Amino acid sequence: MKDERKCACCENIITSKDYYEVEGKFYCKECMGICHNCNSLELYDDMTLVNLSNSSQVYVCSDCIADSDAFFYCSHCEEYYNSNMLWGRYDGEPICDNCSEHYEICENCSVTLRRSDCYYNSETDEYLCYDCYEESLHKLENIIESYSYKIDPTFLGDAPDNCYLGVELEVDNTSNDYDNELIYEAAVKLKEEFDDLLVLKHDGSLVRGFEITTVACSLDYHANDFGWKEIMDLCKSHTLLSESTSSCGLHCHISRKFFGDTQEEQDLNIAKLMLLTSKFYNSHILRFSRRKESDLRWCMKPDMNYDDFDTETTVIDKLKTCKSRGRYFAINVENFHTVEYRIFKGTLNFETFLASLQFVVEFSRCAKRISLSDIPTITWRDIFMSTEFPQLKSYLKRKDLI
């Protein structure tokens, strides 16, 4: 027949006018189609079947598949999809929405992994990669208390003058030699072995560590019965540091009752303590503290100085003004039951630790002992030269402070 043509692809006779002519050749519509993306003609054998989000399928020419970002090849089901069906990537290769049920995203590090390769932490309801799962099992947040946690009031040891000391020792490791599993293990052991003596708490200034907060104990109890040597050895053997970090401090609370039986007596003696701290802050206390200049924002010099016209009333008024300025001073007087020494750098050296606690006692005794009029004339040697504490005297000599 006059209108009959042979398909250049399948060689079947085209009996209708329903055909395509390309470069002088004729193709039936079973062999050639129109690209859904660019409307160009191409043989179906050279085109790709693409899945759309509405569950329909269309053909796309080879040029569009190769050059357009509108389509992708799912490495899981090995089919093509338009770009709005891209769920994510696994090992850099695209995954479609239909196949996403076979994958999970680690909720800690956001890496994509096969569901069969992920780990589920039932405590946190998280799907995690192996490394993050292992880390989550040793996550300090799961076992230590919040910063605001209040320790039960407990007093250990014999302190007839109410010289009870509560310690906050911070331990951390910001270097590359930390071991998260060991740090977690240290926290577990401290809780198990010293549960009646201390609480482990979060602190915003610490990266991988915690704050060891103790019950109130006499100085002798801290020195001989508490177990500080064992605690420090445990920390050191589990990659925890203190003095060599930029974040750790040693704070010591002394009972407010130590400074007197009445509010007025306490305020006067604490005011004298603040005046002494201000007097010796730059010349002696900073050297004793082991603090660097960058650390002093946590333990600033008290804004309280002695004036010739001062009386007991005026210095108590100055103390009240200091109390309203916050706690980040060498001596924090904000607490209702204690006075907090914040000046010391953290340490895992027991002798240095003990010397710091002895300093708190000796310095506080001096504030109680002297009169207000002694403030201008008293010297550092007057306070410490005849101290009864051997560790304190040795430390002061090492630091050329007596």
Task: Give the gist of this structure.
With 402 residues, the chain is an alpha+beta fold.
Q: What this model shows, in words?
A:
With 402 residues, the protein is α+β, with helices and mostly antiparallel strands. It is built from ten helices and 24 strands. Strands 17, 18, 19, 20, 21, 22, 23 and 24 form an eight-stranded mixed sheet that branches. It has a four-stranded mixed sheet with strand order 8-7-10-9. It has a two-stranded antiparallel sheet with strand order 1-2. Helix 3 runs antiparallel to helix 5 (228-237) and helix 8 crosses helix 10. The longest helix has 27 residues, at 263-289. The mean pLDDT is 93.
Work out the strand percent.
Answer: 15-25%
Radius of gyration: 37 Å
The number of helical segments is 10
Biggest sheet, in brief? 8 strands, mixed
Shape: rod-shaped
Helix percent band = 25-40%
**Residue-averaged pLDDT:** 93
Low-confidence stretches: none
Between the first and last Cα atoms, what is the distance in angstroms?
A: 123 Å
Helix-and-strand structural type: alpha+beta
Number-wise, the strands total 24
Task: Give a quick set of tags describing it.
402 residues, four-stranded mixed sheet, alpha+beta, eight-stranded mixed sheet, single chain
Break the fold down into its secondary structure elements and pairings:
Layout: E1 5-6, E2 13-14, E3 19-22, E4 25-28, E5 32-34, E6 41-43, E7 48-51, E8 57-60, H1 62-67, E9 71-73, E10 80-82, E11 86-90, E12 93-96, E13 103-105, E14 112-114, E15 119-121, E16 126-128, H2 130-137, E17 155-156, E18 164-171, H3 180-193, E19 198-201, E20 210-214, E21 216-218, H4 219-224, H5 228-237, E22 249-255, H6 263-289, H7 312-323, E23 331-332, E24 338-345, H8 350-369, H9 380-384, H10 390-398
Parallel strand pairs: 7-10, 17-21
Antiparallel strand pairs: 1-2, 3-4, 5-6, 7-8, 9-10, 11-12, 13-14, 15-16, 18-20, 18-21, 18-22, 19-20, 22-24, 23-24
Helix pairs in contact: 3-5, 6-7, 6-8, 8-10
